[in-house]
Write a structure and sequence with these properties.
By secondary structure, the protein is an alpha/beta fold. The protein is 39% helix and 23% strand. Strands 9-10-8-7-6-5-4-1-11 form a nine-stranded mixed beta sheet, sandwiched between helices. Strands 12-13-14 form a three-stranded antiparallel beta sheet, with no helix packed on it. Strands 15-17-16 form a three-stranded antiparallel beta sheet. It is globular, with a radius of gyration of 21 Å.
Length: 364
């Protein structure tokens, strides 16, 4: 049986950001304790003591609202119920405001070895517009404190195509970020999600148009790579050897088990999701799930996910589709969207920018 990644969705936030459509609820100490107990019940339900686990990822929400003790209880239970690799990558997403030296030391002590810090920008005006409660100075301190606490694998989130953002402000953020002791950057284009507070004319009217958004994205890719952060996926950049092992599971159709309200899984040959309902999750002996795909990772899904990665799609893995793909490649190559070496096709930075359309043309 193949190895496994475990994703824990921690749904608590101190303050909901206006652009975010991930499931979250207001934090309370009592709810957090009940939530941790429910997570542990579910780990015991799924665990068999034998399945090898080599990545654990706490996403949210704001997982760093949980204490080191609470996260340690969860990790301890995973260790009892699964065969956890001694070199497992264990990640927690964190808000800079929650990361004190004491808390960071506690996270290290319970086995967390990778941080993903929600910086978003190193420009205070942009941070305020996004509704973030930290400043650029606070984000910088959080990263430096994490490094001092012994974290050698730190990722920061970066957002581009923000209202009024230009190349100069983006460059300033990138320069300041890449001077910090970090190894990974997840860089996202701001997308207005339906039903969020940003889904309004006031925000849409000040967003950059498609041409400017494209220019900012391509400039970001080029600048990050000049600083040693190579693009290995549409929105992810890393120094060599620091690619997110857990997230690569998603793009390589490898098994992962999701626990918590709104968590998704690709596990035991099926895809399934947990309802976006904290009370329901806490109140159930075992989390309720809804099957979303009875037979995942067929050709179309496999090819689509592989093409999100810079390493691309090896056509020898899909021999029955090779001829059809090769017929379509010349147009993509001449437009600068893809490259092909006779065995593997991968998208360029320009192709990643148009990835949905390019992938749809290539494989559907």
């Amino acid at each position: 049986m193949s190895d496994l990644g475990i994703y824990i969705h921690v749904p608590f936030c101190g303050k909901k950001c206006g652009y975010c459509d991930f499931y979250s609820a207001c934090y309370s100490k009592q709810q957090a304790e009940l939530y941790v107990s429910a997570v542990i019940r579910n780990i015991r339900h799924y665990g068999d003591g034998e399945r090898k686990v080599d990545t654990v990822y706490f996403g949210g929400g704001t997982p760093s609202l949980l204490s080191p003790h609470q996260l340690g209880e969860i990790l301890g239970c995973i260790g009892e119920c699964f065969d956890v690799d001694k070199d497992a990558e264990v990640t927690i997403e964190a808000n800079p405001n929650t990361l004190t030296p004491k808390r960071l030391a506690g996270y290290r002590d319970v086995g967390i070895n990778r941080l993903s810090i929600g910086v978003q920008s190193m420009n205070d005006r942009e941070l305020k517009m996004l509704g973030r409660t930290h400043t650029a100075e606070r984000a910088e301190k959080a990263v430096r404190d994490a490094h001092e606490a012994g974290f050698g694998n730190i990722s920061c989130d970066l957002m581009t195509a923000l209202p009024h953002q230009d190349v100069n402000s983006l460059d300033s953020t990138i320069e300041r970020l890449t001077e910090l002791p970090i190894q990974h950057i997840s860089a996202y284009i701001l997308k207005v999600e339906e039903g969020t507070p940003f889904d309004c004319d006031d925000i849409r009217s000040v967003l950059p148009d498609e041409e400017k958004t494209a220019g900012l994205y391509l400039h970001m890719v080029e600048t990050l790579e000049k600083h040693g952060f190579m693009q290995y996926e549409v929105s992810n950049f890393a120094r060599k050897g620091f690619e997110s092992r857990h997230n690569c599971r998603y793009w390589k159709c490898r098994d992962y088990l999701g626990i918590g309200p709104s968590a998704h899984s690709c596990y035991m040959g099926k895809r399934f999701a947990v309802p976006r309902d904290l009370e329901g999750f806490i109140g159930s002996e075992v989390q309720q799930t809804e099957i979303t795909d009875e037979s995942p990772c067929g050709f179309e899904e496999y090819a689509m996910l592989r093409l999100r990665l810079r390493e691309g799609l090896l056509l020898s893995r899909v021999p029955e589709h090779r001829a059809d793909i090769e017929k379509k490649l010349p147009a993509l190559i001449s437009a600068g969207y893809a490259e092909y070496n006779g065995e593997c096709v991968h998208l360029t930075a320009k192709g990643f920018l148009m990835s949905n359309s390019v992938i749809e043309y290539l494989i559907f």
